[in-house]
Amino acid sequence: MFKAVKLFLLLSIVCTCINAQQSGFTQLAEKIKTNLSALSERYPQEKTFLQTDRNYYTAGETIWMKCWLTADDAPSFLSKTVYVVLANAAGNVVQKKMYKLDSLSSTAADILLDNALPTGNYQISAYTLWMLNFPEFIFKTNVFVYGSDYKTAMNKPVKSPVVSMQFFPEGGDLIQGIESRVAFEVKASNGRSVKANGVIVADNNKEIASFTTEHEGMGSFKFTPEKDRSYTAVITNDKGSKFSFKLPVARSEGIALYVNNTSASRLFVLVKKPEVLPPALNNLLIIAQMNNTIVYAGEVNFAEGATGAAIPKKDLPAGILQITVFDNMGNPLAERIAFINNVKVVAPKVNDLPIASATKNKSSFRLVMPPLKTPNVSIAITDASIDTYSDPVNVLASQLLTSDLQGYIRNPNYYFLAPDSARLRHLDLQMMTKGWRRFLWKELLAGKFPDLKYVVESGISFKGSITKPGSKTPITDGKIDFIIKTDDSTTILSQAIVSKEGFFSVDEIDFNKGASVSYQGTNNKQDKLVMDVKFLDNHLDTLKVTQPPIIDIDTATDQSSFVTSYVRGKISNVDSLVKSSNYLGNVTVTTRRLSVPDSLNVAYTSGVFEIGGRRLDPGKSNLVSIWQFIRTVPGFNVEGDFISPIVSLKRTDGLDLTALTSSSVTASDQPGATDNVENGIAYFLNEVPVSKMVIDNIAVSDVAFVKTYVGPEAVLIGPFDGVIALYTNKGVAVGKNVFDKAFATIKKMGYATPRQFYVPAFNNEQPFGSKEERITLYWNPMVKWNADNSADINFYNNASGKKLKLIVQGIGASGELIYLQKMLEKN
Q: What residues does 210 pair with on adjacent strands?
């Protein structure tokens, strides 16, 4: 988007710098332009946007997510790896995952919350390794989790939050003798805004101005600070409590700034001066820049009556504009940011509404996208009667607002869903009260650029050093051979040549879930001695602590009774699961001993794979092929040779799969459908979807456990008629060859594999019961488009949903922002 206006920007700079050339500001303006350009070229700023299906959950539920990565207002093609981290209120990492970005620089993601997770605020962050050089740009969003301890946690005594008030003089400083507009923000220590009204009182007890909070604890007032006077704000909050806060001390010299951004066509900047002005401040330079590109440069000459500027907004992109006033030595005297509301949204259309009226019936509609190259879109449908809390940040608010501002902004979507004069005024208050993230002028003009500690990451890498055995002496003429056996049975061979300093690096290794890495370091001399190899930890290995959430978003306590009952109902189910696994202390428990298959199920499976299924132990057999074992499993036909047989489902053995096959959602309808399905049977290796060919090549001796699912049990995992899931021996590389034996082996984490959202088909069976209450009814992070840019959406309502919320959002190949929020009503 921004590239399209570069010609206009250059012309604007040439025209508006004419006066600057006459007053000697040419060199300063050129230096600013050059250093901004260098900043963009050397330090491209990546941004992540992470969508969650909602922002409160109960323990045991799944957080469904989609992540996009951008740079320069378009999909980024720098980093190929993104990290998604869940941290608790203390900042301790609860879960961490690493995902590989696709060709559109996005990925689906998910976090399955542990059943024993305690009640509280949690924070999800998403970032690339490169973004750690600029940690203020890391995307963060807050979620609240209700655990089995909810009642206890909510009954704990809570300290009354401390109220604070901050003042933000427009331009940066209060100047004696100059009327200034001062924005303010009143908030509590739990991060929530506080409603209040108050007065400004001078140290002679004279009331100077009155004010009230207008929006989210923010507001503004005007007053003229006098010489040698101090001022205090006395406020009364909505509970009747009074507080006093000192205003910043006014400076004796300087200028003040006033910005009027109410016009649709121009932004007006007024520079105010005191009655007595030092000669050095008679001529000033106004610079306005967006995305490290100057869009306006003009002179303020008080002697000639030029005291401001009118900046055209028509051809500017949407986003934050930084306005700075410099003296002739390049010192920034005053600064202000403003929002340019030229937001262009691509909104898809929804056809074939309303939704089905009967409880749990199937609903269908068609989503039609305007002509757009490669729209990268997600779709979420939630029950609006339960999901009543403010929406998680959307793509518009994230890319245009929160990613460039410091400090927490509650419900940033508010400023973009239906912009009007009130919302734009409230947005301007955010501009005055939130810090800007990009750079400091002092450092930029001095040519001081950020120190880089992290590189652009294009794949998984192994780095480390090699030394002589039992010594710290580096080997400078050696190599390291790698044999990487992944959890999905792929073998990767690689070799690293050691640098002159004794370091090695193997880059762009791609594998999912995990891998056993066998390695051997040798020198290049004739003796080829085996050397000591030390690996450096990857970022994911060391990630244990991050920044804690800064705001409390507990929702059930102040939501409808329907929401509260939903949470309590979910918690009672979680509570029973947690209690069933609690330590009982020093008591004698009499119970049946778990069978070998049941023990293997506990040791190897997770998530939906834990439930149901036929549990099978292949044992220590002399079978040539795993298919010899599968042939004995009820429900499956294995025909042909045992190397690559044809595997199908039996329609006997008491299995009636006809009704299921005709009524279930097909793989093509299901978001995230993969090629791991053959003849209606899905294949998984260590819970990673794989083709049947991978299973063909698994040695029986490597298989620790097998689970098979047919009928309704298979449907719980996905839209499949049958499932065969194999688990390989833990801690042992799959298919370890004889030549691997001399190699040392370590386990490395790989890319997480996004789980597939399950869309239940109720029909006559209604397997979840009449009281089934899902909040998220449909989640599709990777929408597949028809040739006419349409997509057919099918989903099933829950037991009670009468009004559903549809959110469609994403980013186009050229950076177009795609967004639609719509309520779906029953007939």
A: 199
